[in-house]
Amino acid sequence: MITRPALTRILASARERRSAVGAFNVILLEHAEAIASGAEQAGVPVVLQISENCVRYHGGLAPIALASLEIARQASVEVLVHLDHIEDTALVREGLELGVDSVMYDGSRLPYEENVRTTREIADLCHAAGVAVEAELGEVGGKDGVHAPGARTDPAEAVAFVAATGVDALAVAVGTSHAMVSRTASVDRALVAKLRDAVSVPLVLHGSSGLSDEELRGAVESGMTKVNISTHLNGLFTRSLKQFLDERPEVVDPRKYVRLGRAAVAEETARLLKLLAG
């Protein structure tokens, strides 16, 4: 019997229930610990995301990926480790060797036909290893300033892209923008509903830090199934550390203040996961 990849399974279940799975980016080891702890508090699955930027920061994939995989293994709820916005195909291969659960291959900078061809190759490679693949048809707003937040995914093109590539989930542009520090964005709910009805695989919302709780719920109710959040949690982490150090500048042991950031991320992760689950 062929077992479906873990991400495909949990997204299919969420899509059927009209709920969403939260996916949060790992920057430091404390992020992975906090996100897993928050998922345990909420009692629902979660996705730990490791981006190509994170890999560059740590000087390699293995240290942060292996640590995240071990945290996931020890969790009392299902925690998946996902490679996010990967453009380097060598990192995809390394991730498969290390045992990641899923990969978001980002060929959105490529010409359409090349994006389709490369994404198809990555999907075949990952599926042979029992790993799910997410892709992005066109760049979501805000990533490296290369696209305006007004970008929108065309449903017909999305249907053709999924059919041609065989991906398991699709990131779409519906009004959000990466790296927003204020929660003032809005989602084109009518477009989300059209995409959900047209596209056969779960839809992924990137740049969700810019959405209020009401907008997050609206996006999920309209048809988003995986919701990526990073900047919002990083802001909480950083503010917790800054407040402590402003009040106690004499402290030099990082454990005394980094733990506060970890606790803040865990608490907000639990809250967001419950919000997304509905």
Automatic annotation (TrEMBL):
Gene3D superfamilies with a match to the protein in the record: Aldolase class I
One Pfam entry name: F_bP_aldolase
InterPro entries: Aldolase_TIM, Class_II_FBP_aldolase, FBA_II
Cofactor: Zn(2+)
Record-given protein name: Class II fructose-bisphosphate aldolase
Source taxonomy: Bacteria, Bacillati, Actinomycetota, Actinomycetes, Pseudonocardiales
